Amino acid sequence: MVPSPLALLLALGAAATALAEPLRFVDCGSKDGSIQEVNVSPCPTQPCLLHKGTSYSINVTFSSKIESQGSKAKVYGEMMLVDVPFPIPEPDGCKSGIQCPIEKGRSYSYLNKLPVKSEYPSIKLVVKWELIDDQDQLLFCWKIPVEITS
């Protein structure tokens, strides 16, 4: 029996998901939500090696403790206790896998990309990722150590 293309696709998807290990992260003040899991792909070991000119997939599973009409992401590189803003292609959480309005008690998968530009310096730092609700509170905030490399 020859497996159908759909069965092969599902098997490949399951294998790819198995490779994305949840990361150890620091919760940096999630007030209005609770993080279940953070995945950065590809990042097989920590600190994550982020190669210049590459884009990384971000997937955060969290549950909301509040209702919110929308959400906005802010990303920083923490260097010597200073938060340097990192631009991301889509800061609107409602366009990043979250069905808005956000409902209290519901679980969500937030999906985004982290592009690492070629002109970034080769440096070790901490990435801080925030998702802010419409009351300017943190639905989630997490940090992971990374190393930007050529």
Task: Give a topology summary.
Blueprint: H1 5-19, E1 26-27, E2 33-41, E3 48-51, E4 54-64, E5 71-79, E6 82-86, E7 107-116, E8 123-133, E9 138-149
Parallel strand pairs: 3-9
Antiparallel strand pairs: 1-9, 2-4, 4-7, 5-6, 5-8, 8-9
Signal peptide: 1-20
Keywords: Disulfide bond, Secreted, Signal
Domain MD-2-related lipid-recognition: 25-146
List keywords for this structure.
ML_dom; mainly beta; elongated; 6-stranded mixed β-sheet; Immunoglobulin-like; 150 residues; NPC intracellular cholesterol transporter 2; cholesterol binding; 9 strands
Structural account:
The chain is mainly beta and 150 residues long. It has one domain (26-148): Immunoglobulin-like (Sandwich), CATH 2.60.40. The chain contains one helix and nine strands, in the order H-E-E-E-E-E-E-E-E-E. The protein is elongated. The relative contact order is 0.26. Residues 1-19 have low confidence and may be disordered. Residues 25-146 form the MD-2-related lipid-recognition domain.
